[in-house]
Amino acid sequence: MKCLLLIDIQVGFCPGGHLAVAEGDEVVPIANRLMREGGYDLVVASQDWHPADHGSFASQHPGSKPFTIGELGGKPQMLWPDHCVQGTRDAEFHPDLDLARIDHVQRKGMNRLVDSYSAFRDNDREAVTGLAAFMAERGVGAIDLCGLATDYCVRFSALDAREMLPDARVRVFSDACRGITPDGVTEAEAEMRARGVTILTSRDHLAVV
């Protein structure tokens, strides 16, 4: 079974959102085309779904500013602007994303005491979301990822897919992702390749479907 995993294609991560990724909205039409023409048996979308007092927010650390390193759960933590708060527009999927083609939504980041970049588990690697079991039960043997942001949630979701579903082929469509920093994207792609994730473009895939 082939699965397309859409990572956090939400208002909050697109231009105008509270944690906007530059050109983040440009992934939406590519994701829609992949859902429509990519030959997938299953489409899953992850959704950041934070409580208003999430510990990764700089606002929860008096005197701290976004994009500085603080602490959460006794470990270093990048502090973010408040974003994707449950029930707000910022947490909604981008309005142009074709939601009718999504089979399953996996929410993450609901525990205020730990951040969750990966769609598969929290950053402390102790609590899982259940997505790996969901895919395993359905016999998923190929996982293609796209979305936001390459250097954080796409990266850690792809790495966890390789580790938690070791028999599955895992690929990332670079043209259907956007990152926070160019250096971060370069580093993320190098790490993913080193761990067995294939980096290609959606055009490469659609040309052979």
Description:
This protein has five helices and eight strands. With 209 residues, it is of the alpha/beta class. It has one domain (2-50, 88-206): Rossmann fold. The strands form two sheets. Strands 5-2-1-6-7-8 form a six-stranded parallel sheet. A two-stranded antiparallel ribbon has the order 3-4.
Summarize the SSE layout with pairings.
Elements: E1 2-7, H1 27-37, E2 42-48, E3 69-72, E4 75-78, E5 104-108, H2 131-137, E6 142-148, H3 150-164, E7 169-178, H4 182-194, E8 198-200, H5 202-206
Parallel strand pairs: 1-2, 1-6, 2-5, 6-7, 7-8
Antiparallel strand pairs: 3-4
How many E strands?
8
- Class from secondary-structure proportions: alpha/beta
CATH architecture: 3-Layer(aba) Sandwich
Q: Please identify the top-level CATH class.
A: Alpha Beta
Name the features.
single chain, 209 residues, alpha/beta, 6-stranded parallel sheet, two-stranded antiparallel ribbon, 8 strands, 24% helix, globular
In short:
The chain has 5 helices and 8 strands.
